[in-house]
Specification:
Helices cover about 45% and strands about 20% of the residues. The chain is α/β, with parallel strands linked by helices. β11, α11 and β12 form a beta-alpha-beta unit.
Length: about 375
Amino acid sequence: MKILHIISSGGLFGAEGVVLALSQELNNNDIENIIININSTDTASDIVTKALETGLKAEDLPCIGKFDLNAIEELRKFVLEHKIDIIHSHGYKSDFFAFFALMGLKKKIISTNHNWTSDTLAVKIYEQIAAFLFNFFDKIIGVSEIVSKEVKQKILLKNKVQTIYNGINLKSYNKCLSALSLQLKEQLKIPANAITIGVIGRLVKAKGYSYFLESAKQILNDFNNTYFIFVGDGPLKEELINQAKKLNIAEKIIFAGIQTDMNLVYDMLDIFVISSINEGLPLVLLEAMAKEKPIVTTDVGAIPNVITNNENGLLIPSKNFPALTHAIIELIKDENKAKKLAQKARKTVEEKFSSKIMTKQYIEVYKKLLE
């Protein structure tokens, strides 16, 4: 069995983390697999660089524009030359490339839908096209029941859809605090004794970051020694910077950009927050749980299947910054509760959301396709 993962990556985000974790576990199970990233830049992609660093097989596929026929032909040649058995795409662009590269070939094709965001009209159109193409795929995996339900509503053969929850490599996210996190704080000009509250992800509207800033304004009225950290990049950055300025809290808001060592990022944070209004199953949630971080999150997507309010985190309605404010302040004030929630979060991810569990389910899917 030989698997080819195809992704069009703009950085190391949730889908990329899933691909890397899955690839590593497949290697551990003696299943050969390769990652190809559809790359529209002149530099090596982060996912390929990271994959090669960890001993995985990966390479960039140069692509000019949105739909490069030459790139599709090169992908087709790669599949034939390497005798690929199953093509596994991740994301609507990779769905297009995989579908058209395999036309006429007797190869199995599977896609993982990590979440349709519909961020812009163009993205929404691309996602609708991907939904149509899914009718010709052999299997579609949703990362949550909600994502799977949405896919089923848009395709004819609904039995092709299956849910497999994301999982993470627990060894990559140990619980030990690192003194190096203090250096990261210093680098970001955050006082060593400051309370740090952070969000991690692309700076897009679906993440609900405007509500996070509104909450920050309220929290700073009572806890002035608090800093709010955005880890990641995206099209909404300037808008968020301007909002922070209008709220007169810009000096307490840190835009840390894309960080390469996420262990240090989590170690630096006292409280981890998800303010999203739309999600599948965010990998950063599982990572924060594995790092034993107290978590405040909105109740969107598959998150309520992972976080039980007041058991392993605090669950709040989306688009509700007063509720977000109240929950964060509760954890700031009650360190004992925050610690207990964090410990239970780690236990939850160990028992239900490891990359080993996720990979076992994918292997079962692959084997059935090749029967």
